[in-house]
Amino acid sequence: MISRDDFVSRYGGVIEHSPYLAERAYDAGRIVEPLTAMGVHAALVEAFRMASEDERLGVLRAHPDLAGKLAMAGGLTEDSRKEQAGAGLDRLDAAEFARFTELNTAYTAKFGFPFIIAVKGLTKEDILAAFEQRIGNERQVEFETAAAQVERIALLRLQAMF
Length: 162
What we know:
- This protein is mostly helical.
- About 65% of the residues lie in helices and about 0% in strands.
- The chain has 9 helices and no strands.
- The longest helix is centred in the C-terminal third of the chain and has 23 residues, at about 140-160.
- The radius of gyration is 16 Å and the shape is globular.
């Protein structure tokens, strides 16, 4: 059986900057060997869904802005950097960068957390269209949508690990 420390070391970053979720999944006895992407995902998602509203908000707030200052300064996690680069967000022209910055600012001001979307397989145009559509949501709808995207990102990251 994988040790708690090894499990947290390996999977603690799957949900952005939230190793405590991996600890909770392990401590709840939800880790079943052989480990699979789907099995680990189910355990992490259960821990995420059982977290308090404030903890879930903290997970959302741990995500970087898309094509934001952190990305430009090279301060993203390796997973986030690869995901954003795969969608072309590291190659925006000045007008595109300005639009993403404007939307990031308005979205965060409205909802209190950054826009979150699983960018794998999406183009920058797809992401921008989703951004513009979702900014019109009510806060609770958007909180739930962002949380679902966190779960999707976790699955995609785990599938890449297995």
